[in-house]
Amino acid sequence: MESEKKINFKNFWYIACESKELGKNQVLARTILDEWIALFRGDDGAPVALQDRCIHRNSQLSKGWVKDGQLQCSYHGWTFDKVGKLTGIPSEGPNQKKVGSRCAKSYECIEQDGFIFIRLEKNENLDIPPHRMPHYGEKGWQTVRLFNVFKNSVINCAENYIDVPHTVFVHDKIFRDALDEKVTTKVQRKDGAVHIEYIGETDNLGWFSWFLNPKKEPITHIDHYYMPNITSVQYIFGKKEFWITSQCIPINDELTWVWTDLTYKFGPIGVLAKPIVAFQGQKVIEQDIVALDNQMEVIKKYGENFSNATADIIHVFIESIYNAIKEGKDPRELAEKNNEVTFWI
Ligand code: FES
Ligand SMILES: [Fe+2]
Questions:
Q1: Best exposed site among 63, 121, 217, 301 by fewest CB in 10 Å?
Q2: What's the total number of domains in the chain?
Q3: Which residues are 243's β-sheet partners?
Q4: Rieske domain location, by residue (predicted)?
């Protein structure tokens, strides 16, 4: 029965590509949660996602081509329209009676904020729209969009994006200076999300400080995790604001594609700051890739067996949400939890 359908990771929306990557008459191959997908644009320009497997003799549809908004298989030329319906079999000649009502397997698509999102499986019990990228395209705001590949799982990647204690080691000087500073956080788990508010954080952004916060304004810093794969880091310094939002896409259990939007409102210097933000942001992520790829090597050899310190309450909350989904449960039904924890960075 639909109403009792267990939830699973396929019920969420994942980025398949950026809008600009999928041109007219183009087909892209993607993998999400081990599913092979062929992407193209139908005759109305809207994105179409089909299982990358021709129903005829199972050639990959992504090796074919798009003509008039229809995808043609490269093996014997069977053609599929924007809903995956078979529309032509060249070997049948002018009489296409055999075509019938056959269909390729198709997936839902949504185009939003310059991304094309796919959902592999709809579940009425968990109908959450694709995450909006904060302030994307808004007046006065700039976005630098970065793409990176991690040889690690979605959960480890997502946790890294809002892990503060690693920053003084992995990103020493670039992003953060080690100040041996005591920080107090309010950590909340609620509705399948974790929110972390840093209280009384002083200027501790290393190299970034000179243009992020030259006037040394008080900092508001809040991190968010949204199930199962999204993190959003928010900094406010006076009138300036800086968001780092990452969507981690599970290619498989050991491979994750990550799109990161660095979105900010810096006033008149905003446009000029773009190359600096892109360069520094990418450099920081490359340091994380080294750390995360190494972590997965060890997990593959010895299995995953974590041990926690006080600051890891954030990870424990995130993992409780992730594990609930693994068990087919709705994380929004987990009890709300509020903790105040202190740690040193
Ligand atoms: S395998 Fe696709 S047309 Fe034959
Ligand atoms: Fe990092």
A1: 301
A2: 2
A3: 234, 263
A4: 13-118
